[in-house]
Give the backbone structure.
Amino acid sequence: MSSVVVTGASGFLGRPLVAALLRRGCSVHALGRSAIPHAISAQVRWHRVDLFDRAATREVIQGIRANGLIHLAWETAHGRYWQSSKNLDWTAASLQLLLDFQDSGGRRAVIAGSSAEYDWSGAPVLDEARTPLRPASLYGKSKNALRELVEAWAPLAGLSWAWGRIFNIFGPFEYPERLVPRAIRTLQDGRKLAFDDGAQIRDFLHVDDAADALAELHTSSYGGAVNIGSGEPVAVRDVINGIAECAGRPELVDYGARPAPADSPTRLIASVGRLRDVVGWSPRGHLRDRLRETWEWWKADAARTTDRNR
Amino acid sequence: MSSVVVTGASGFLGRPLVAALLRRGCSVHALGRSAIPHAISAQVRWHRVDLFDRAATREVIQGIRANGLIHLAWETAHGRYWQSSKNLDWTAASLQLLLDFQDSGGRRAVIAGSSAEYDWSGAPVLDEARTPLRPASLYGKSKNALRELVEAWAPLAGLSWAWGRIFNIFGPFEYPERLVPRAIRTLQDGRKLAFDDGAQIRDFLHVDDAADALAELHTSSYGGAVNIGSGEPVAVRDVINGIAECAGRPELVDYGARPAPADSPTRLIASVGRLRDVVGWSPRGHLRDRLRETWEWWKADAARTTDRNR
C-alpha cells in the first residue's frame, strides 16, 4: 500500500485530497500546524508540525518514511497572499521539505502550483507547453521559482515529481470572502449582491474534482507540470446566475454596481489536454449541479454555525 | 558608520571583502560556520553560526541589527557544486536570511550571483540587459531563482538590493584544485602540467578586485544585477603562460595533453559597462602583475605549510 504525506491537509483542497487518496487505498499521513480536524477521517494518521520549523518537520518526515508526498501548504491569506513576503518563507520551507522527503527515501512528490505562474496577458487558453511562464505576482513568481528548481533537481536526485497548476476552485470550506461563497452567503442572507459586469471568463472546478485530479496525478508516473482545471470557459456572470437560481432571487444581483478590477485578465482558461490524455482524468458532473451542492453545503454550514451560537 | 553583515566571510572572496569594507570605514560583522580565522582582522566582530539553522541565524541577525548585508555563503565543493542538492538548501537559507535581515531593520543587501546564470551558448559578451538568463546548471538555476524572488520581493519590502554576478576570480586562498592554483602549484613543484589547448576565452579578475567591486556596489545605491568582471577577454593559455613565466619553466606546460571539456563554452566575457558607469568601479593593475602576486602568495603558502609540517 502506498503511503502519502499530505501538507495543508486540513485546508480547503487538503480535506478532499485526503478523501481522494483514501478512496485509492493510500495510507495517508496528514501534516498540519493547527489542531487535528476530527472531521476528516479516523483512517488518517495526523502529525501536528510547523513546516517553517525545519528540524521538527525533518523529524516527522523521517519518522514516516512515506513513498509519496503531496505538498499543498502555502500562504493563503485572502487578497494579501499575492504579494506577501510569506511567499518567500514558503518557497524556502518547500525546498527544505522536498530535500528532507527525498532524503528519507521518498519516491514521488506532487506539488500544488497555480495558474498564476503563466503570462496572463496573452493566450486565450493557458497551455503547459506553449504559454510563457511569466508570473506577475510574488505568489506566481515564488511558485514558478520553486517549480524551476524542482524540475532541475528532481532528476538528479532520482525523485519522480509532478506539478499541478490549480485554476479557479470552489466548494466546501472555501474562504468565505472569496467569489463563490461570498455570493452564496449574501444571497442566502437575502441581501443585495453588488457586482461588477461579471464578464470575465474563468475556469471553474469543484474542489473535490481538483483534489481527485491531484490524487490521480500522484498515482500516475507523469513527470512535469499539468493544469488542474475544467477546460470549460465560463463567464463569472454565469456562475453568479447559477447561484441566484439556487436562491430563486435573481433580482438580488446588481451587475455593474462595482467597477471590474483594473488588473484582472478577461480570460483565464486551462488547456486540459495533458490532464485528460496523460493523467487520464476529466471532471465529473456539471457546473450547475456542483454549484447547487455548494449552495446546500453553505446552507447547512450556516445552520451549524447558528446552532453553535445558540 | 555603516554596519555590514558578511556571510561566507572566511572564504576565498569573503576575506578580501571584509578588508575592502574596513577600508571604507564600515563596521563589519562576519558570519561563518567554522572557527574564527584570526588572520582576518581584529576590527571585525565575528559571529559563529550555521546559516542552515534559521532560528540561530535569526537570533544573530536580530542581535546585530546591521544596515547592510553582503551574502556570499554558498555551496563551493569544487566540481560538485554545479549539480549538488545543496544548491536548494542554500536557496532556502538565503531567502530566510534576507527575510530576517529585512525584518531586523536591514536597509541594503548585496548578494553574490554568478556568470552561470546567463545563457552560455550565445552572445560573445554576457550583458545584464541583453543576455538571456538561461542557466544550464542547478547552481546557476538556484542563483537565478533566488535573484528573481529578491527582485520581486525587495521593492515590496522596502529593501535596497543589488546582485553581483561573479566571473572567473583567482588569488590567495582559492581552492587548490581550481585552474590558477593548480597550475601554480604544479609548476612550483617542478612537475609537468598536462593541459588542454587552453583556447577558451575567459574573464579573469583578481579576488581582491572582485571584493572591492562588491564593496563598492554595496556602497552605491544601484538596484539590480551588475557583472563583476574585468571585461578583458583572455585565453586560458595566456594565463597559463603568465604563470609559466613566473616559473621561468615554459617547457613544463604540455598543451594538448588533455582534451578540452566537451561542455565548456569557448567564450565567457563580462560586459562591464554597468559596473564602470553606474557603480563607478574598474579593475586596477594588469593581469600579469596580479598573476605574479598570486604566484608569490602560493610560494609563501607552500613555505608556511612546510614549516607547519616540520
